[in-house]
Amino acid sequence: MKTRQLTCIVCPRGCSLVAELSDSGEVISVSGNLCPRGKTYAINECTNPMRTVTSTVRCKSGAVVAVKTAANVPKSRVFDVMAAINATIAPDTLRIGDVVIKNVCDTGVDVVATANS
């Protein structure tokens, strides 16, 4: 059996979590959480970690605009998502919420503008 130490990021408490894992990677137990969300976070982080990607995209004029994924993407795909963002040239008319890349890297998640260009 293995253990994994985590710090919960769901709320400002930052609970110190300990997840016990079977040899196959299945979460057997979670301790240290002060609420049920900590347990859910630990299970997800150990079995299928997800991340929101924030970055900037270059516009045709050369300016850059802040963007982010509209939802979490698998952690294993973050570098692919960044490559797609870096390869994109956006229009100069972006507004907050505009989709810059639809279904980035076939994740089912869009990359959206978080600022106006």
Task: Please explain how this structure is put together.
- The strands form three sheets. Strands 8-5-6-10-9 form a five-stranded mixed sheet.
- The protein has two helices and ten strands, in the order βββαββββαβββ.
- The chain is elongated, with a radius of gyration of 18 Å.
- It has helices spanning 36-47, 78-86; strands at residues 2-7, 16-21, 27-31, 50-51, 54-59, 64-69, 73-74, 89-90, 99-101, 111-113.
- It is of the alpha+beta class.
Q: Which ranges are low-confidence, i.e. pLDDT below 50, for 5 or more consecutive residues?
A: none
Structural class: alpha+beta
Q: Rough shape?
A: elongated
Radius of gyration, CA atoms, in whole angstroms: 18 Å
- Tell me the number of strands: 10
Q: What is the share of helical residues?
A: 10-25%
Number of helices: 2
- List SSEs in N-to-C order: EEEHEEEEHEEE
Adjacency order of strands in the biggest sheet: 8-5-6-10-9
Portion in strands? 35-45%
Rounded average pLDDT: 96
Oligomerization status of the protein chains: single chain
How far apart are the first and last residues' alpha carbons, in Å? 51 Å
Largest sheet: 5 strands, mixed
Short description:
This protein has two helices and ten strands, in the order E-E-E-H-E-E-E-E-H-E-E-E.
Tags for this model:
117 residues; 3-stranded antiparallel beta sheet; 2 helices; 10 strands
